[in-house]
Design a protein that fits this description.
123 residues, mainly alpha, membrane, transmembrane, transmembrane helix
């Protein structure tokens, strides 16, 4: 189970790095100008907060994996992360109803995250 938590840490850190590039990948410099100042700010703030969450989760998994496996709080941490990814999968179907292989690939990545954190939580 420790190996899955390490993989979960790397998974989280990788998604944090991915979010660092949202400005470039999604052309936010241009596309966000179409939004109101408030919505433009909210999008960027939410992304920065997600980067923090992913890096925090990744570092906790890598450096506190023994405590995660041995405590109720650790199990709840894993369940919360699994639920986070499960909810993200559901949101894919609600908000990104786009038939594009990249969206389908991301959905698969999020399903993997859900399972990755669920298995050590229930064992």
């Amino acid at each position: 189970m420790e190996t899955l938590i390490i993989i979960g840490g790397i998974y989280s850190l990788t998604l944090g790095v991915f979010h660092l590039f949202f400005w470039k990948f999604f052309n936010w410099g241009k596309d966000l100008t179409k939004l109101s100042l408030v919505n433009k700010g909210i999008m960027q703030i939410l992304n920065i907060q997600m980067i923090f969450v992913f890096f925090s989760t990744g570092l906790i998994c890598l450096f506190l994996r023994h405590q995660i496996l041995e405590t109720t709080l650790g199990k709840l941490f894993l369940l919360a992360n699994s639920a986070f990814w499960g909810i993200r999968v559901i949101n894919q179907f609600i908000f990104l109803r786009i038939n594009d292989y990249r969206i389908h690939l991301l959905t698969l990545v999020f399903i993997i995250g859900c399972i990755l954190f669920l298995i050590p939580a229930i064992n």
